[in-house]
Design a protein that fits this description.
The complex is a heterodimer. Chain A has 15 helices and 15 strands. Chain A is an alpha/beta fold. In chain A, helix 7 links the parallel strand 3 and strand 4. The longest helix of chain A has 27 residues. The longest helix of chain B is centred in the last third of the chain and has 28 residues. Classes of the chains: A alpha/beta, B alpha/beta.
Amino acid sequence: MASNSLLSKIATNDGHGENLAYFDGWKAYDRNPFHPTQNPEGVIQMGLAENQLSFDVIQEWIMKNPKASICTPEGLAEFKNVANFQDYHGFPDFRKAIANFMSKARGGRVKFDPDRVVMAGGATGANETVMFCLANPGDAFLVPSPYYPAFYRDLGWRTGVKIVPVDCDSSNNFQVTRAALEAAYEKARNNNINIKGLIITNPSNPLGTTLDRATLTSLVKFINDKNIHLVCDEIYAGTVFSSPKFTCVTEVMKEVKNCNRDLIHIVYSLSKDMGVPGLRVGIVYSYNDTVVKCARKMSSFGLVSSQTQHMLAAMLLDDEFVTNFLETSSKRLARRHWIFTTGLEKVGINCLKGNAGLFCWMDLRKLLKDKTFEAEMVLWRMIINDVKLNVSPGSSFRCVEPGWFRVCFANMDEHTVEVALKRIRAFVGVEFEGNKKRNNAEVFVNSPRKNRWGKDGLRLSFGSATRRYEEVMSPRMMSPHSPMPHSPLLRAS
Amino acid sequence: MLSKKASCDSHGQDSSYFLGWEEYEKNPYDQVKNPTGIIQMGLAENQLSLDLVESWLASNPDAAGLKTNGESIFRDLALFQDYHGLPDFKKVLVEMMDKMRGNKVKLDADNLVLTAGATSANETLMFCLADPGEAILLPTPYYPGYRFDRDLKWRTGAEIVPIQCTSSNGFKITAAALEEAYERAQKLNLKVKGVLFTNPSNPLGTTMTVAELDHIIDFVAKNHIHIISDEVYAGTVFDTTSFVSIIEALMQRKLENTEMWNRVHIVYSLSKDFGLPGFRIGMIYSNNPAVVSAATKMSSFGLISSQTQYLLSQMLSDNKFATKYVTENKERLMKRKEMLVSELKNFGFACLESNAGLFCWVDMRHLLRANTFESEKELWEKVVCVVGLNISPGASCHCIEPGWFRMCFANMSEETLRVAMHRIKIGHRATMVKPVKFSPKWVRLGLSTRSLIIIFRSLVLFLIVSKCHFV
């Protein structure tokens, strides 16, 4: 369009990151979404890191506490005050409640100051705000890979901040090392790239692991030595379901000698721990007073709705609820993780040993034709088209080793998990000791002679190995956060 | 150590405008607990019609309890983060926007992008339309407290070049003023990307005339730039027929299927019309698919809470309620404004004739010691400190003429407004023993008596201005 030349560079470039292959799986899901009764052959969404396991706990609390809603007869008296409240400091009780929840999600080992709690438009808004506060256009942040694909957009699209990946691999379970950081830092400097800081996601997305204390300490020492910032995205802190316990950066910051607290910042959100991404609760928590002030002013661009603040203030100041919720959620995540990983193990698929998050980091290197990303793409398209699972290929997380996939397991019910596992079993088509029934792979085999053999004797059933992935461009632009296709919210009345 | 943005002050929060706020925060008026405290008249909020919303909520328990047909939809809401927004919500929003424009336009829900407040909408549009260092033209006076500077400039790196408007023609935009602003931008080596205006105007409280809109359209057509029309006060226009939206102006000139149609964008919000600033409900309406696309993606940084989208979509889809609210709200605003304007007139203060908004643009030039902004500041300090009213000085609105002040009237009870009026009458913030009634008695007073009162009071104020110091 002629008028496109009138738009800004930001509006017309690819900085939003939505043209990544990552979203192809979404399109397939959008066209043909799984439903247990209405569309049992549809694509199962396993690319969405959502926590849907514990809504009943929240719902029960809401029903028992009508006063927390400004719309109920019991809570209506507060309506005017709440509807009118746009102070970017947020309700004091809301900040207190968030500080309380954050603390409990870390086992009470850390106490947070409500006056440092700053709102943002989800963690998306929080990460962008932190970048605006810490870096100028052209500056860079070190980011250990594999990392959350949307960092590309959140950290850099409108801020002009560059990502310098610090590549990690399976040789040491993808742990980021001081040596790797030093190397990346030096290389950047030699290329005249100004590194302003390091951003880590802990617990990690997509790995599903927490950083051990020693590693976290070395990271804090590293940034302290270089006098650069450390941003810890702790959005999955409350999803830790097994040992080792989660170590918050605050715990380490207190132990490192001469640690400059002005360099330490936490990004948080309720979207994963509580499973409420729709409520848009993002938090910037910084130990740097100037950053707190600046982020607070910037929060005007993404304040949490006062209606939501009001409800959550009551909910998260209810200690009994918070304790019960965190315990229940943790147990359910642990169980779901166990069901899924043991189900995979039965067909010889291993995952990185994880103790947190809403996903597994699945090792499918054995199924690759060769050790290339092209082969990873071929395998991935097969998984979408033939196995009909939307999983996320490692390359979309900038993983440097082909063959790893992130599979989400907390955004579905148990029945759907079973269906997914069944399909995977059929796809892999392996006979495993203890499982006498031979998996029926007929559906996926176009020619019995064409079965390929992987390294460890795993036999793949190719339904459409040579079929090219045909993208049908949907006329409607698709959101990377597609809602449930059967949500009543989407049915226009 | 930190970014330039963190250390600079183009968020504007250190302007003197905020000093008035600070004084208010330290000593806020309360009828019972602090009757000599400062009355907040610097906040353009609409608190006049929330009771209507409350009674709707009381009669609609399903929406209140997050239920549809008795079934809880909490889970679906908790998960809903689609940046396209709730379809039902967008549908009722465009219908309401059509209503506010007298149904002379028919907006398309697919062109609407939801954002966390108009604050976010304005910034997002700037990110979409201007690169750092590029400029937009903005008529003065504009949105006080440097808010526009924050929303439009701070993180985007864009520049604002003012279009100077004066009282000589009621602060209307002229073709000459537009040209002059454009030339000034060129001299500063700034590439102009568009014109942004608030219609109805903040702080003037007036709707733009067709002539003004035509000047802008001609200007924009000639220079091939964008129009951003911030219409957040559209629902406060006392008489709907007098409001001409930019979309309607373009339609009147038969420009719907032209290239220019794609360079027009509207900002809206429920914060002013509906008095719900806490809910952060803002939106961008654009005829340009590329802008809709980019803005939609950017809205990820500030989406509207799903529970709030749901609540409002339920409320506004009750057509009877929505119509009743819009009508009743306007009547109350008009009544309140007339009350303030007539009392101010009795005290010798003229207001710019207005037909919208939550404020009056008051002419206090005759009280200035000199025709300077220093003088305006001195007067303002006295009004805050001595008279006890936090009003907004014209300088904070980038007005080029000293002596104009914005006074808000819709963010307080009638009782409080009477107290404020009493203070203006007597020139300081002594406690009112008896509430002053807004009776038409004043009008019936003989001209000479009224003149005497005006002269006496002006003298008192003059004495105070020249003798007191701002503490």
